[in-house]
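The data layer described in this paper is built around a simple, fixed record for each protein. Such a record has a labelled line for the sequence and another for the backbone structure tokens. For reference, a complete record is included directly beneath this paragraph.
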Amino acid sequence: MTRVFAPLACLAMALFAAAPAVVANAPAEATMGLVQRIFYYHVPSAMLMFVSAVVCGTASAAYLFRRSAAADRLASAAGELVVVFGLIVLATGPLWARKAWGVWWDWDARLTSSLLLWLMFAAYLLVRRYGGPGSEKLAGAMALFGMANVPFVYVSVNYWRTLHPKTSVIMTLEPGMRSAFWFCVSAFALLYALLLALRLRLEERRAEAEALFLALDE
């Protein structure tokens, strides 16, 4: 990963530099107009938040059942990215909602469940940081619970009456909108992969430093 990190980082920067032009050239939505373009940043961030929650939960399961230290490091890195991408979702969503719905926030199923999911993983990080000895196990159980909520958050708009668009909205995009959307998804996905790899490498270095410190004490 070390050899390809710099070229991939440059590619990610190029994609994000081109993203505003790609989004600006996408067809305008008939009813919402300019504000709809937040969609190209809001939805990819939400997708990566869900992906990271699943990665964190799966890695936590491997740690709890196999005592894999590597899996625990992956869970920690992914848990942080759930919070990071979740912040983007929670910031861009109200900006879009204010124009589209006339309110900054509505306590409907999708918005409330997304906030709760973000709070679960924020709590996960707090438990890992301040929970004391054995906190990794408690945090791992919290990550599993958070991961189990991802399908609920995703399908909530399909089963409850809500202001939020249904999951089928992506399939109804015009071709120009669809290509711009998947371009942005690719940019965010590459950024996510790079951040996860970088954060995981940091966790590995930290584990090596702790092992050396313990060896010196002995």
About this structure: The first helix runs from residue 2 to 25. The helical segments are 2-25, 39-66, 69-100, 109-130, 135-159, 175-217. DSSP finds six helices and no strands in the chain.
